[in-house]
Amino acid sequence: MATTSSFSKGCFVFKANPQTSGRSPRKKTKKFSSADLNEDLNASSLFAKSDKSSVAIRLDSYRKIWAATKKKSEDIISDSHKQLLHDVKTFVSDNADIGQSSIPTAFISLGVNLPDHAAFFSLLDTTLKTNVSPFVAMLNSKECPSLKHMVLKTIQKLTSCDSVDDEIERDEEEDDEIVPIKPTSKIKTFANLATWYSDVVMKTPLIVILQDLESFNTQQLQDFVLLCREYRVRSKLPIQFIMGIATTVALQQQLHHRTSVCLATKSFQSQPSVVLLNHLIEQLFMKNSVLKLGPRLMQLLLDGFLYHDLSLSSFMMRVHLIIMQHYITLPVSSLCCSPSELKNRIKELSEADLDLYRQIPSFMKFIEKNRSKVSLLTDDKEFRQFLLKSLERLNTYSKNFSLSCRVLHSLSDGMPDALFGKSLREVYVNLLIGSESEDWDQFIRLLNVSSAHELRNRIETAFTMLKECDTSNSLSDFTTSLILFSEELKHLGETQKTDAAATSPKSQNVFVPQGKKLDKFELKAQLLATAKQTRPTTKFDEIKSDIITWLNSELANQLKSPSTLVFHEIFYAGSQVQTSWDIVPWIRRQVQPVPRVVISKALSNPASYLGCNCCSLTGQESQVLSSMPDLCIVYKLHTECGRLINLYDWMLSFNAIQKKDDEDDNEEIEPIIQARFIRAVAQLQLLGFIQSSKRKTDHVARLTWGV
């Protein structure tokens, strides 16, 4: 298949062949999730098209890294939902009694990250069916366009029916080739449901889950609630509701007072998606991870998350794409592996592979600055040793960098203006970018004016954090220094009153003779003179000076940007600036495509997305082939017209392309050709390329020129 330039591929609809089996074609439709899309990325075929150097090793490394990353992310997201699932399950179990007339209703606020809601409700559905009741009906607005559909879908799912009422099939606007089937269930009303439930041995609640409450029709939703409440009171049906909402404002709009009084509600709140994002970044990229994201890719991912959809599933899909592209594009990524495999892989490198590593920009800069190391360009044995030591040093640096970010976050937390960021994720990203020089100076100034008690609390917090996170004692010197500073400040606090009395300077009050008043200029001069008098250095000043010196030397040295280290391009994806290995522009086109450019490319050259030979252009870009989809033909014909397009002339041109060469030119246009043309024009209008004209009824107005 041809290489594409965007995930936003052109959409071409082709009718499926008529189904000959007895089941409805819709029953065979497979529902794809984001996880399915991740699995559909055919890594083997993509790696086969990449650089042939160490393809098998890179493919194996990619699969290991992505499997570990995917499992860790799934565990994090699952753990974040664990408490919420437990609370909802407890609520449903506690309200299983049919005594109250109001319908027990759980409102679950999941935020505006709509792509993640389906995964949560799927997990909730499984949890409730396993632990509470097998009678669970999960509905969404797409399958419930009317109250009739909503009731029948609810009954169907509660009773585990496999068919849909033929009346629904006739009401829906389906293609002619989809033939409705006869239902096997006779349960079509709540009265039938009550009769069916009376014969059920297991008297567990009937749980109805509404995933997207905001998308349901308001009147339809209110009628459904009133209907369920009527049968809960009259027929003793233990119906319960679980409703997913994005915002509380929509809840007030959907449920009026007449409806809300029928519900016994309780609200549940999920963790904000930003909190989960912070946890994901800490666990995936700050804790012993092999592949890390460079500053540009990290910023690109955060922009897409924070300013687009707040979706963790979309975030992980982009991470998957980055990991794959890093191993596909970079032939030197074969050494992006666990530290235990480094030595053996370096030994297996050929001379051609070593030359590739010598072409890495950071190594070339190192050679330019260190002319004494020119022998590394010719001596393979020496270069292998240098490569191994550099990568080991880089692994150690990455671990210390993450720990140092935690130390800095503990020391700067709560300071004015949130110098490096309010969360650990913001601190990590800002330091990764390397834009901390001004913030660092301000941080030192604020520490310099801190009290002994405040400074001691910050140091103790940093020590506690470091003790918990640094399990390998890689920053044992940091721990020792923090303990020493904390003990000195503690000892100073015990003797503070005595030291302050012994070292305090004599009062330098301004002497003003009685009966004489100073004007403001004289008073200002005397106050300035008093301020310039040097204050004796105290013990606290000495300790504070030692702390600041330690921060400027030791901590600042560990917080250097990774771009300053040799071979950082191997472990930090997207660090290759202005080289053929730079994947950032390609990733940006995938995750932030320009819709109009993508659509225009798909319509003008559909083969670039469909990957078929029948639509391939052999000549100019304006070439029109009869094998192209109808929408593409109509689009390419409309680009040759002016502001107003005559529909009849347009249809004649469309017919001229579709008809065979041996057909008579004067033959009338077939009805099927007319229908295809009308459908293609309607699709083009839906895309926003044309609109109807008020000046001439048989013309349409063109809305776009160029790309």
Number of domains: 4
What is the end-to-end distance? 25 Å
Strand order of the biggest β-sheet? 2-3-4-1-5
What radius of gyration results from the CA coordinates?
A: 35 Å
- Molecular shape: globular
Count of runs of 4 or more consecutive helical residues:
31
Helix % is 55-70%
- Give the structural class: alpha/beta
Unreliable residue stretches: 1-40, 161-184, 503-508
Largest sheet: 5 strands, parallel
Strand content: 5-15%
What value does the average pLDDT take?
Answer: 81
Q: What's the count of strands?
A: 10
Give a verbal description of the structure:
Strands 2-3-4-1-5 form a 5-stranded parallel beta sheet, with helices on both faces. A 3-stranded antiparallel beta sheet has the order 8-10-9. With 707 residues, the chain is an alpha/beta fold. The chain folds into 4 domains: 44-80 and 272-436 and 564-592, no CATH class; 95-271, Rossmann fold, CATH 3.40.50.300; 441-497 and 538-558, no CATH class; 595-702, Arc Repressor Mutant, subunit A (Orthogonal Bundle), CATH 1.10.10. It is globular, with a radius of gyration of 35 Å. The protein is built from 31 helices and 10 strands. Helix 17 (380-412) crosses helix 18 and helix 21 (476-494) runs antiparallel to helix 24 (539-558). The two termini are 25 Å apart.
